[in-house]
Amino acid sequence: MTVRIKDGEFVDSQNRVLNLRGINVSGSSKLPTSAAAQSPSSLDPSTPISFVGRPFPLAEADTHFTRLRACGFTLLRFIVTWEAIEHAGPREYDVEYLKYIRAIVEKAKGYGMYIYIDPHQDVWSRWTGGDGAPLWTLEAAGFDVRYFAECEAALTRETYGRGHSTAEKARSANDEKKEFPKMIWPTNYFKLACATMFTLFWAGERYAPNCKVDGVNIQEYLQGHYVNAMRELVKYLDGLDNVVGVGTMNEPSAGYVNVTNLEKGFGAMGANGDLRYGLSPTPFQGMVLGEGHVQNVGDWSNGFLQHVLSRPDRTVAVDPKGKRAWKEGRGCVWKEAGVWDVDPEGRPRLLKPDHFAAADFGTEFYVPFAAKYTSALREVWSGEAPLMVFVELPPLEFASTPFPKIDPKVLPDAINATHWYDGITLFTKSWRSNVSVDTMTRRPLLGYSSIFKAHSSHLAAIKRLGEEKMGGAPTLIGECGIPYDMNGGRSYRACRGEKGLYDKLLGTMPLGSSSSDPFAQQSAAMDHTISCLESNLLSYTLWCYTPDNSNRDGDIWNGEDLSVYSKDQRGLGKRPRDDVYDGLRAAEAFVRPYAMCTAGKPLENRFSLKNQFYRLRFESTDGIESNVPTEIFVPKLWCRAKAGMEVKVSDGRTEVEAHDHWFVVRYWPSEQRRKEQHSVTIKFVK
């Protein structure tokens, strides 16, 4: 199994261009299997931790890989976390977990699946509202995680209700069913704990030179342990030729790096760099709250006042009541670095508002780290093909500094794996085909054609980053997908034949939908996303496949529900429970025909869900033998027998090979027309 880079494309051993289509496995791999998912006790340092069984038990692997391969997925972005490997303490690696990961990846090889390892994090760690790093990293910086909620240093699902926002205060002590606000978790990037940890990780030597652990600056300490943990994982995977690469870090945050004025907000443009939702202290307010000082903080809703008038709904007096975010005997690292202090009257004062300003995160901090990290991992990799490195910087809408120039000599075999989502659909958990907002320009989009054009142009801009900033590197969109719990879960109630008051008034079907399919809206949204990807001839890995997804708990993490599969949809559709597609949601939108490998330069590789029609166009190129075919994946979701598809070609010949759950259509152009443009179309007939 070989994937190489040639002329800005992924190619196989026969120089055919590969369109890699895959999925992230899995959404729940962010959390340990050893504790009740996101319960208050799960953050207790005494709670045993194990990630063995994420993404699924080895005994169930055949079932899941069979389902995923039947969908046409040939690449898995395999989620691991630093915590999963090194949770017990520095240099204490979980050997049982490492052996388990090797066994799972080895099993995937038997299904013809490539793997790229994603060292995942969201807002640094579970104790800061997300996942990724072990608890001991926070303790090494001097944090006391017990009082993050009281100091507004982090907002977590496990401690929600202990903070000071209006929504949290309204939650009574016995109202444990109060929902954690949807998509509020990313605001932790702009809170004390997460922002501090990322700043120390990337730039501790510059901004906190006296913060040392075990005799070295905390930057060297944190980076060294992170690199060595991932290096240990690569040692266990060495020799598996279906492992094609590894990411550097999922959507790394710059922390405070490049913040112009700590008194105004995050980002080079002051407050405009923040994601404001709930209580949103400025960086300076976050620092002084961490030391227990009372602050008046803006409380923001995710609506008209923010997006139109750019102001909070109200101001809340946040009083930590004597609690501090720092351990006894330790103080705020930024106070100790001379960023702020307390005047003789006991009032906090900002001394260096521009302490972190005028820095280029990508060029000065990320690229040097990525080069060191990649070199360390490749030292223990003996595979015939080089270990590719997937660069997954934050989505362009949230980048605090420009995408860096990445010289292939500094970071060879690098892949642009920037993520893209339809942000309006993701944050509102609804799909509107005629009205949206361009998240790059903030301008309204009216009509589907303008929405499609805008989103396709966003993806084209990402693709150009690989071409222009990374020396012609190929692009693979590392994450893209849709929320399935649209409109308050109306699709789930429709599947069960249930109706709440809202459903009785408006119906369980999506507004504007004439379909009886309860997932019609999700299908339309997913088809839109993949059609935008196809218009740019992009490879991608969808977010996500979560085998333990349920309608109640979603992907088990922070209320997200983006899994293409749910155990709660088993047996509720038109398919029998033993059908390989049973449990998939809006499957017709992502289980679609495509050219897996093209014997030439692809010009079009697109499926029309509306017309049930597939089209491939390509030009023959030098370096590919005439007997090497183009191969098109055709899932049996669309036709159970060869007679169910009409294949037409511009020239040459085809043959169809049947597998258990799909067909492969092979195409050879005629010798007389090899230098011309070729096309293959497939129409599905009933």
Could you describe the 3D structure shown?
- The chain is of the alpha/beta class and about 675 residues long.
- Helices cover about 25% and strands about 20% of the residues.
- It is built from 17 helices and 28 strands.
- The strands form 8 sheets. An 8-stranded parallel β-sheet has the order 16-15-9-6-5-4-20-19.
- The protein is globular and about 90 Å long.
- Mean pLDDT is about 90; it is low at about 270 and about 500-515.
Low-confidence region ranges = 268-272, 501-514
Seen as an oligomer or otherwise, the chain set is: single chain
Rg calc: 25 Å
Instruction: Give the total of beta strands.
Output: 28
Label the structural class: alpha/beta
List the helices and strands and how they pair.
Blueprint: E1 4-6, E2 9-11, E3 17-18, E4 21-25, H1 61-70, E5 75-80, H2 82-86, H3 95-109, E6 114-119, H4 135-140, H5 166-169, H6 192-207, E7 212-213, E8 216-217, H7 218-237, E9 243-247, E10 278-279, H8 283-290, E11 295-300, H9 304-307, E12 314-318, H10 333-336, E13 340-342, E14 348-350, H11 361-378, E15 388-391, E16 414-416, H12 423-428, E17 435-437, E18 444-446, H13 448-469, E19 476-477, H14 490-496, H15 501-506, H16 520-535, E20 539-545, H17 587-590, E21 594-598, E22 601-608, E23 613-619, E24 630-635, E25 645-649, E26 653-658, E27 662-668, E28 677-684
Parallel strand pairs: 4-5, 4-20, 5-6, 6-9, 9-15, 15-16, 19-20
Antiparallel strand pairs: 1-2, 3-21, 7-8, 10-11, 11-12, 13-14, 17-18, 21-24, 22-23, 23-28, 24-27, 25-28, 26-27
